[in-house]
Specification:
The protein is mostly helical. Helix content is 80%, strand content 0%. The chain has a domain of 63 residues: Alpha Horseshoe (Serine Threonine Protein Phosphatase 5, Tetratricopeptide repeat). Helix 7 packs antiparallel against helix 8.
Length: 235
């Protein structure tokens, strides 16, 4: 029986990491029906429930994960994110404070590490929303991440993509430029700037940014593809 649970756990983990949440969910539920002591399984079920908009159910799963393992930082942060999305900010604040206290029991100040971790959870959730074409939800999560921790070029870049998907090209360009300023060697910022400028009809500027991306990292095939494709179109 133990081997079977382990096999189910491995299968569910693989499906979850691949983003196949609908397939992973029944397997995760089967695991906790046989052995409810897997904190990580409750945490994953909470994340799936959150993605489906079942915030109350997500809270129950995250609380159960923390009941099993009170020091489970990821579950604490996921619970904070969920409470924030529900508008229950006082509860989010309390959970946040407990997580910070466990990380640094003697410190009463806001811990930048914890803030960064929560920002990362918002970022990951935003990426999932973006993958499913839910741009409004993705934008909301990316903004929350940036509010907690501003100096994240990858978050600014993904926020720019979501904004551009909504037709907000000018604001998208602002965030791509911010990402480039935060890390001039972050190739994706240059690539996305190029795409945005191309959409505005600024072809030469687009080519300049893709060429810069390749100069930064010659392995960025995406930039090479855009240069090749659009130059052929220009001809």
């Amino acid at each position: 029986m133990q081997v079977n649970i382990e096999e189910l756990h491995n299968k569910a983990e693989q499906l979850f990491q691949e983003g196949n949440y609908n397939e992973a969910e029944p397997i995760l539920k089967e695991i906790i029906s046989s052995n409810p002591t897997f904190a990580d399984v409750h945490n994953k079920l909470g994340m799936i429930s959150h993605l489906k908009g079942n915030y109350r159910q997500a809270v129950d799963y995250f609380k159960k994960a923390l009941e099993i393992n009170p020091n489970y930082t990821e579950a604490s942060l996921n619970l904070v994110v969920t409470y924030n999305n529900m508008g229950e900010f006082e509860k989010a604040k309390d959970v946040f404070a407990m997580a910070a206290q466990r990380a640094h029991p003697t410190s009463k100040a806001l811990d930048p590490f914890i803030a960064g971790k929560i920002a990362n959870e918002h970022y990951k959730l935003g990426n999932i929303y973006l993958d499913f074409g839910l741009n409004d939800e993705a934008i909301e999560e990316y903004r929350k991440a940036i509010k907690l921790f501003h100096r994240l070029p990858d978050v600014h870049t993904k926020l720019g993509i979501a904004l551009r998907n909504k037709g907000n090209i000018e604001e998208a360009i602002q965030h791509f430029n911010t990402a480039r300023e935060l890390n001039p060697n972050y190739g994706q910022a240059w690539i996305q700037l190029g795409l945005s400028y191309y959409m505005k009809g600024l072809t030469r500027l687009a080519f300049e940014h893709w060429e810069k991306a390749l100069k930064i990292n010659p392995k960025l095939k995406e930039a090479e593809t855009y240069l090749s494709l659009f130059k052929k179109g220009e001809k």
